[in-house]
Amino acid sequence: MSLDAIDKIAEETNFSGVVWVDHAGEIEFAKAYGLANRAYHVPNTVDTRFGIASGSKGFTALAVLSLVADGVLDLTTTARSLLGTDLPLVADDVTVEHLLTHTSGIGDYLDEEADMEITDYLVGAVHELSSTEAFLPLLDGHPTKFQAGERFGYCNGGFVLLALLAERASSIGYHDLVRDRVLRPAGLTRTDFLRSDELPADAAVGYLPIDGVDRSNIFHLPILATGDGGLHSTAADISTFWRAFFAGAIVESVAEVVRPRCDVPEESLRYGLGFWLHQNTDTVILAGWDAGVSFKSTHDPHTGTTHTVLSNTSPGAWPLARHLDGIRP
């Protein structure tokens, strides 16, 4: 396996996006493929911003953990203590730590275990979803799946709930919390929450096949997503993020964040606090998949090696990410 095969895989899979490899901050490979905007034939560049979907969960976790470090929240804080009478089906013993580790057992508004297609319209009136509080009706009414702490069960709604708890505990909006406590300390200048109805010129439009035609994902995702996804970023910013995170620029307790809390054998992975972990090495992973979005970035803290693939299609990132996973520094 080598970097030489990347162009061939990209051609064979009609890849649209960016592939980036660096080692100890030195770029070994950085190349863009395909179009950021198909209607106007705008090409992707290595500086194009892409949605990272659930890759944002790591950023949510770090914002929450910075509040924990400041004493605003605690890992043992119960969701109920901040929810009041909202979301009555969330069990009284569900804590911040349960939510961070996907062990809360709460029902999910976007259940990835359910039978669904990536082209399905899953979140209703997407134009109304521009704040965390606006997600409350979507989070409500989902019965508990299992007792808190019993096992791992990936839960998008749990990270929306974390965003809500962080807002209520700090009296600061979730998006500003992430900007102030994660993006700025890490030095990320090209990463932000972008509204889908006013994407800037340097952001890629997400595409998916609908009725035989490639169409944008604007009707499939919240107009301004919250704790479970929604950031746009660049390959360079993701690499900067990893270095800043492991340098302790965001939170001091890096070892606790990446300490394995759960084995996830069905994914051949482990899970920490908001981050996927390699099954048997110290490599840390952020990944995201949604309508018109796919993203994976891995970082080996021992060698300082980062592999990142960003794509503005749902299947785009995976063949190249699998190839990079097979390359050892």
UniProtKB/TrEMBL annotation:
The entry's keywords: Hydrolase, Membrane
Gene Ontology CC, one term: membrane
Subcellular location: Membrane
InterPro entries in UniProt: AmpC-like, Beta-lactam-related, Beta-lactam/transpept-like
Catalytic activity, EC: 3.-.-.-
Superkingdom classification of source: Bacteria
Domain Beta-lactamase-related: 7-321
Pfam families: Beta-lactamase (PF00144)
GO molecular function list: hydrolase activity
Gene3D superfamilies the record matches: DD-peptidase/beta-lactamase superfamily
Name of the protein in question: Serine hydrolase domain-containing protein
Organism, as annotated: Streptomyces sp. R11
